[in-house]
Structure formats: C-alpha cells, structure tokens
Amino acid sequence: MNRVINNPDLVVEDMLRGILVAHPELRVSADNPRVVHHVGAAQKGRVGIVTGGGSGHEPAFIGYVGQNVVDAVAVGEIFSSPTAKSFLDAFRAADGGAGVACLYGNYAGDNMNVKMAIKMAEREGIRVRTVVANDDAASAPLDEIEKRRGVAGEIVMWKVAGARAAQGGSLDEVIEAAQHAIDVTRSIGIGLSACTIPAVGKSNFTIKDGEMEVGIGHHGEPGIEVQSTVPARDMAKLMLDKLLPDLPFARGDKVSLLLSGLGATPLMEQYILYAEVADILREAGIEIQFSRVGNLYTSLEMMGVTVTLTKLDAELSACLAHPCHSIGITVGGAS
Amino acid sequence: MNRVINNPDLVVEDMLRGILVAHPELRVSADNPRVVHHVGAAQKGRVGIVTGGGSGHEPAFIGYVGQNVVDAVAVGEIFSSPTAKSFLDAFRAADGGAGVACLYGNYAGDNMNVKMAIKMAEREGIRVRTVVANDDAASAPLDEIEKRRGVAGEIVMWKVAGARAAQGGSLDEVIEAAQHAIDVTRSIGIGLSACTIPAVGKSNFTIKDGEMEVGIGHHGEPGIEVQSTVPARDMAKLMLDKLLPDLPFARGDKVSLLLSGLGATPLMEQYILYAEVADILREAGIEIQFSRVGNLYTSLEMMGVTVTLTKLDAELSACLAHPCHSIGITVGGAS
C-alpha cells in the first residue's frame, strides 16, 4: 500500500513532530517525548484530565488534548499502550494540585501501565483516580460488561470531564461525571476493510470484498459476526438493534450521537449512514440533541464506521454544550 | 469495494439527507433539492457568497456553507457540475439585495453553467460577480494560468470572501478580496490510489502499488508525472519545489498552509507530511501564520494529499482570523 511516511518504525515520532508544529497550543513534555499537554494544563486548583492509548486512532487520543477537554496525553506506539512512565509523566503534566482524572479505554496493556503509573504518582503526592471506558457493546455480553473495550465513547467521557473540571468540579465530581458519561454510552463498529501497521507491512486480519465484520474492534479484534455487506440502512439497523436494547435507550430519551469513519470511509458515506441512524432513532422516539460526524476515532486506513450513543440528562447536556477547543472536537465558535 | 451506501445512483440524495438532519443550521432550497443554504443566508444588505461543484469532495463544497463563510451551495452529481438552474437557485437563496459573489473552480461544466445562471439571475435583478479559482499549479504551465483548475485553494477564497461580506464589504470589495486570495494561492496534490464513483463501480484511472501521481487532479486528472513512491520528506520537497517558485513565495513571506488528505489517508500520515512541509518552509524563511490539517477537500476514497499555500498580507490574515463556523472550517471557539 502506498503511504505518506518516512521510516515505518518512526511514524509516531514523525506524526508528533507535525502535530506539535501545527498546533503551538500543544507542548511536548520536557523529559518525555511521548507526553503531550495543552499549554493551559496544570492550572492551580483545577482537576487535570489525562488519557492515553496506542497511536493510529487519530484524532484520538492526542487530538482531544485542548482547552476544556483533555489536559495531557500519553502516546503509545501504533495500537500499543503507552508505557507506565508516560502515563506518570502525563499525570505530572496535568496536575495542578487538585488531582488527576485518568480516563482511558479498557485494554490489558493500558490497565497494567495506568496501575503502575498511579503507584508511582502516589509516591509523589499526586492523587489520581480513573475511569475505564467500556462502551463497545459488541466486545462482550452485557453480563460481562467489565470485559468490554473502550472506543469512541471515550470522546464523550473526555468532553464531559473536561467541562466539569473547567466548571471547578472536584476530582470526585469530575470522576463521577466521567463514570456516569461512559455508563450511559454504547458504541458499535462495522469493519469493511482491514488496516496495516506501517512497520508490519501487512494486515493481521482480513475482510473480504463483499463481506463486513459487525462489531469489529479498533485493532481488528473479531466482532459479533462476519456477514455479507448490506445497504447503509441495514447497517444502521444492525448497529442500533445491538445498541438500543443494551443500555437500554427508550422512547423519550435524548441522546448524543457520534458517527465516526474508521479512516478511509468518505465523509459522504458517513452522512449516508447518519441519515439512516437518524431515521431509526426518530421512529423509536429518541431525540438527537448533540451530534458529530467525521473521522473522530479511527483505525489507520480501515474502511468502516462506528456509532456511539449516549443517553443524556441535564448535566451531560450542559457538559457537552460547554465551549471547548481541540483538533478532534470544538464547541462554540462564531456567533 | 465495500461501501456505506444504499442505491449507488442516489448517493448524493442520501448524503444530503444526512447532512440536513445532522446540521439544522443548513436548509435545503424550497424548490430545488440540490441547493443548500445557511439559515442566516440572504441577510438584507449583506453580499451573498455562493459556490458549487460536483459531489465526492466532502467536506467541499457543502461543508463550507456556514456562518461567515459560504451562504449557499449548488450541489452536483459526483464529480459533475451542478446545473445552471441550481446555481441560479443558489444565487436566489444567498441574495440579500447587495449582490452575490459566485466563487467556484475552473472546470468546463461549472464555467458554462455559472454563465447561464448569471444571465437568468440578471433578468431577476440579482447582481452576480464571479471569481474562478485556478490554484492547482500542476494543471497547466504558469503562462497558461487561466487553464488551471481550482482545488483546495477555494477554501481560502471562500473564507476570505465570507469574512469581507461579514465585515460589510460591498460586492466589488468582496470580489476583489476573493480574487486577491486566489491569485496568491497555489496548490498541488499527490495521488497514491485511484477512487471509484459508486454508480460506475470501477475507477476510470489507476495508480499502481509503488507508484504515485504527482500533480494529480481531484477527479484523477493526469498530473505532472507518474513516478515511484518516495518518503514523505521527498513528497514535501517535490510539492514545494513546484509551488514556491510558481508564485513565487519568498523569504520573509507569511503564509497560510492547508494540508488535506484526499479521503483515505490517515490523519497520522497527514501530520507526518505537515512536519516535512514545515521544515522546508522554515529553511526557506517562510512563516506559517495560519494552518489547517485534515480531510479538507477530498476525492472520495482516494489515497493521497494536497498542499495549498497562500501568501498573506494584513487583510488576508485578518480575514482568515475572522470567526466562522461550518462543517469544514471553524475559527474561534473556546477562550
């Protein structure tokens, strides 16, 4: 496959160089090139928001570092957890004395490294609490929800927590808001092609022409079912048939809807799916109150889409409407 | 190829349905489903900004309809000009009595249809002036600049004109600003894969694995040269070696830099190229004062990238900094 890279072993370094020069409001940690923080991070008395994860999901995770969203991010290799040291350095970069909310996705490597980092941080007097996102409804049954992976629902968790921190919330309040946000969020993806880690040079999974993987994970993890491709309206139905009963979402609910391409899916096709999802929600009596469409959380050049629904209440709605600015999400603007 | 569509002949209709439900600030024209305007269009006494073009380039063109950018857009079939009637209806939707600036790209179909639409508009007393973007430096020699195509430089033209209109500029002032913006703008693309119109089902051109097309057009039009793929830093050099002498851009210049993926190129790779472009500009003594990275102007699921440079002066800088809000570009936000 033809790519826009230099050395395939240095794609993360080379990407970070580009992000830092393009966004002067983002800064690399003085003693860790794999930690990036916002220029306004570590405000005295304000809870710091940290996340981290493997690269290759851009704009996640680094693209959600910004004003009133994430303060600092630990950057991993492609599809690999950041090190414990990087999580620790991200805590240091984000801590303004009021503690750090580390909000990340449920993957074995991240769980292990965050735990180690917290132990080290405690020795330095940095208080860290975590929320582990598990919004991927396809990744385990409901009665094993603790096994589910975190995917694009993390964006909602970061946005809500960033807003609560900006509003002066305590660490416990920020954690409670982030936990609540992810608890009422469900995501599902459909994969239409594989993707290739540059340094590996070939994909570790395949999706045939004419087939799709319903419930695929963000690293090609197996989903619920491989089946023949169907029109967009049937994709929407498959996805919502899984998501709606899972929470459940019910008539009268107001929701946030994030519809993301997985990397190579044209925006045109994302909006085609959006129309179908919106139709089903309207028929179900569920109102879309906040939404975003685009490449919000990707898997390199995978073809495919994800849908993320969050059941809103007054506090979540207010947090989503709170102004913020980052590569991946901006709320507010001209008026 | 696996896609997220319903009927391949109705992808534009289906996309528009999604865009309109996702963005309530956008409205379809009452008597033309292929014209979309901003809810604030046709403000009395304010110059209306219109564009139009084929679909498949999302977020262009429709994604630049918004507050203080484009007021109304004529939407064509994939890679095909909108009809003259659609351009006329877009003029009607945007006209608030102060005239309409129709700012579009240099393609035969668009030229013909805009001309016909203007004749019809004049009979209704709508004053329309045009600027025809020709920023694609690879599409014809400098001494035949009038033959060059319009590409992502149109975004700069729209942004600048939208700002001048918002500032109360007259039609002549808006046109002058838009013409100046495109006159000091140069773009070039590199194609790394072909793309496929859904209703056609196969590409009308090919790019082999291990080869790239330097100077490719947004519909797969032949570029300057097909050659073996090179690292990102050499891609950057190839592109800037063409762009910098063409205007020319010189030491001490301040520029706007738009770096766009063509659809399937991961954001990671776009930032890798950004770092290389920024290096060359810095070495050349050229300062990046405004920039955007992402899928700004695409060609369905083509792999590849485009670089657009604009030489800034005080007026252009002020116009780019003017707050605006649309799917494709937002300036301002949290603070």
From TrEMBL, chains A, B:
GO molecular function terms noted in the UniProt entry: glycerone kinase activity; phosphoenolpyruvate-glycerone phosphotransferase activity
Entries under InterPro entries matching the protein: DhaK_dom, Dihydroxyacetone_Kinase
Record keywords, A-Z: Kinase, Transferase
GO cellular component, one term: cytosol
Gene Ontology biological process: glycerol catabolic process
Domain DhaK: 7-329
Enzyme Commission (EC) number: 2.7.1.121
Enzyme superclass (EC): transferase
This protein's name: PTS-dependent dihydroxyacetone kinase 2, dihydroxyacetone-binding subunit DhaK
UniProt source species: Pararobbsia alpina
